[in-house]
Amino acid sequence: MSADQNRNHDMSQTDIALLLADAADEVEIGIAPVQAVIRGGRRRRARRWAVATVTALVVAGSTGALAVTGLPGGGHGDRQTNVAKPPASAEARHVYEPQRTELARGTYKGKEWHVTVQVWGAPRNEAEADRQFDAMAELGIEPADARKPADLIGKISYFATRGWGENRPQQVMFNTVEKFEKYSGTDLEAAATRLGYGGESSGRLVIGIVAKTARQVTCHWKDGTTAVAEPTEGFSAHDTGSAIRVVDGFQGANWFVCTGPAGTSYASAEVTK
Amino acid sequence: MGDRKQARNEEFQSFMVGRWPRLMRTAFLLTGEQHAAEDLVQSTLEQVYVAWRRVGSADDPEAYVRRVMINAHARKHRRRLKEFLAPRDDSGLVHEAPDTGDRIAQADDRSALLKALAQLPARQREAVVLRYWEDLTETQTAEAMGCSVGTVKSNAAKGIAKLRAIPGLAEMVTQGGRK
């Protein structure tokens, strides 16, 4: 390469650097969303812990199985069964403290709204059911068709709640069942509710359940507009308030949320993909 | 313990506020789109927050952040980007050399460059952005991209050559670029 060529080469690269700097100026910087990042970081950390816990359980199961096979006359330890065995303690089964998954959140009239699904593990006896009943009461939620604690024995309870501002969350869709129902194809169950606690946002928040295979839910509003919910992980500053999410501890289906624009309300919802 | 945690939080916040503009610009060049850039930076910083106890006390937290961002970009944005930025009209990448000082023409330059960047394979784009926008050395770039210096050289050279081959940009570069 000649000296001239070299010089031209360097010049061009400098110019490309300038063009890049110029193009980079086009982005709107905005204010650093510190709190959103910290919240997101904490959620990531919590997920990490959850994964670590699951791994620990599997490892513990394997070790147990190996120990059994090593016992004299222990016969054939079934390692697979041991690994898959549900955790024994009530705490590990989420009997007293549910698994919670946030489905959506946003702001309405200056206050944050959020939709969460909580899944409570099945109590195995009356003592566990008593404690679970009390724990639910403390949170202000009432299980379906359970007048007394014993009604909860052997049943999983789930609640989709919505909260707004500092108010106590309200239960919207909930049930207490012996086993989860499996949704398939375009199966869908939904309920429309409000974003805030005033009547003017009535029907703008739709919460529902769809098959694990559903890739898109379209919600139709009375004014003819639509909102589309698609499988989503995590939260970002650009969430539309509509999403399909996997709910921890909830089997056989996923949950979705749609939010509608001001001045209209829910008409219908369908699985479109 | 609580005080130390609080101090770490404050340290992270001040780090984030300070680095946000620069990270946004880098992410914008990598992704070519405002929202994608914000998502990339936000998700990068969330990961940095999780590891802050370790990262904050490291000699060069920026290097860690760059590495996380490039990994996140590679994982999440590569395919989506191509779809998003692939020219959908007949404008292609050919632009006439604009008159200096013309704001519309300047916007065209930017758009041409962003589209040109989007045409590069992700690794070439990353190498060009890190070398010529972030002004990193080849070694620093290699560290951020998790590859060898040789790979950086080759990706950056190919990327630059492709950018130069684009008529509009080639003319701008020949004319000394936009200053």
How is this structure best described in words?
The complex is a heterodimer of chains A (273) and B (179). Chain A contains 4 helices and 11 strands. In chain A, strands 1-2-3-4 form a 4-stranded antiparallel beta sheet, with no helix packed on it. In chain A, strands 5-6-10-9 form a 4-stranded antiparallel beta sheet, with no helix packed on it. The longest helix of chain A is centred in the first third of the chain and has 37 residues. The N and C termini of chain A lie far apart (57 Å). In chain A, a hairpin with a 4-residue loop joins strand 7 and strand 8. Chain A is an alpha+beta fold. Chain A has a domain of 186 residues. The N terminus of chain A is likely disordered. With 179 residues, chain B is mostly helical. Chain B has 2 domains: 85 residues, RNA polymerase sigma factor, region 2, helix turn helix motif (Rna Polymerase Sigma Factor, Chain: A); 92 residues, Winged helix-like DNA-binding domain superfamily/Winged helix DNA-binding domain (Arc Repressor Mutant, subunit A). Chain B is built from 9 helices and no strands. Chain B is elongated, with a radius of gyration of 18 Å. The termini of chain B are far apart. Classes of the chains: A alpha+beta (273), B mainly alpha (179). At the A-B interface, helix 1 and helix 2 of A face helix 1, helix 2, helix 5, helix 6 and helix 8 of B.
Portion in beta strands of chain B = under 5%
How many alpha or pi helices of chain A?
A: 4
Proportion in helices of chain A: 25-40%
Gyration radius of chain B, in Å: 18 Å
Percent of residues in beta strands of chain A: 25-35%
- Spatial strand sequence of the major β-sheet of chain A: 1-2-3-4
CATH fold-level topology of the largest domain in chain B: Arc Repressor Mutant, subunit A
DSSP E strands of chain A, number: 11
What is the total domain count of chain B?
A: 2
User: What's the overall geometry of chain B?
Assistant: elongated
Q: What overall geometry of chain A do the principal axes of the alpha carbons give?
A: globular
The chain pair forming the largest interface, with residue counts per chain, is: A-B, 36 and 49 residues
Oligomer: heterodimer
Number of strands of chain B: 0
> Which secondary-structure class do the elements of chain B indicate?
mainly alpha
Overall mean pLDDT of chain B stands at 75
Radius of gyration of chain A: 25 Å
- Mean pLDDT over the full residue set of chain A: 78
Helicity level of chain B: over 70%
